[in-house]
Amino acid sequence: MKISTWNVNSVNARLEVILNWFREERPDVCSLQELKCIDEKFPYEAFEALGYNIAVHGQKTYNGVAILSKYPLSDITKGLKGEDEDEQARYLEAVVDAPHPFRVTSIYLPNGNPIGTEKYSYKLRWIERLMARATQLLALEERTILSGDYNIIPEPVDCYNPAVWMDDALFQTEVRAAFRRFKNLGYSDAFDLMPPADNRYTFWDYQAGAWQKNEGIRIDHHLMSPQAADKLSAFTIHKATRGFATENAKASDHVPVSVEFNL
């Protein structure tokens, strides 16, 4: 079972690049973030032609998350409880009805910049709402994987130059501490269990030649329940995807991150 996560930074603008990767890697399940489209504008037919069942929680112009699965999806949940007025499409959860089922998510955690504003306060509140849901899911004792773009740089080694990020919402002490709290609950970071030798970054900015200079950060994560972590067999950051481009589309600033399980 291969489960991937990818912030695609507009699913329609980069569709050709995305589909090329899907054809090559053929994930069983993939969580997508930052769709930047409403549900009705998602390119269902293109992915259905590849054999995927699809759940979408979209939003016009901003945000948007999806789960694509070779197996049927059930128990689909859109959004997190805790703020009824929150209309941002940032959380999607479903059960993958495979012979060995998984509960999966697509998470697009708020960026939070600039710090000291409502955007940062919203990020902190959103983390607490996710923490509450993550706690509930652990109690189910299922194979659960919380996948997505967390907009959290866990450790100084996860960015090319920590000094550059000291005043950024992705690298604040309380945000990084929150990420550790997920692990203290009982979730495992797939990266920790199988760190790749050649690259740890999952995002390179479009500006200032960040990709060319390898000035990246690690913000796309898979957090696994004990029942899932016990079956982990591989972890891959698809770095080369950052350089993919076609005549009609350039790469996302994020790359896919995949985990595989022996069941």
Topology summary:
Elements: E1 2-7, H1 15-25, E2 29-33, H2 44-48, E3 53-57, E4 65-69, E5 73-78, E6 91-96, E7 102-108, H3 118-139, E8 144-149, H4 173-185, E9 188-189, H5 190-193, E10 203-204, E11 216-217, E12 220-224, H6 226-229, E13 232-237, E14 257-261
Parallel strand pairs: 1-2, 7-8
Antiparallel strand pairs: 1-14, 2-4, 3-4, 5-6, 6-7, 8-12, 9-12, 10-11, 13-14
Main beta sheet, described? 6 strands, mixed
Low-confidence stretches: none
Q: How many strand units?
A: 14
Structural class: alpha+beta
Question: Could you characterize what this model shows?
Answer:
With 263 residues, the protein is α+β, with helices and mostly antiparallel strands. The chain is 22% helix and 26% strand. The chain is built from six helices and 14 strands. The chain has helices at 15-25, 44-48, 118-139, 173-185, 190-193, 226-229; strands spanning 2-7, 29-33, 53-57, 65-69, 73-78, 91-96, 102-108, 144-149, 188-189, 203-204, 216-217, 220-224, 232-237, 257-261. The strands form three sheets. The chain has a six-stranded mixed β-sheet. Strands 5-6-7-8-12-9 form a six-stranded mixed β-sheet. Strand 3 and strand 4 (65-69) form a beta hairpin. Helix 3 (118-139) packs parallel to helix 4 (173-185). The longest helix is centred in the middle third of the chain and has 22 residues, at 118-139. The protein is globular and about 45 Å long. It starts with a strand and ends with a strand. 43% of the residues are buried. The model has no long low-confidence stretch (mean pLDDT 97).
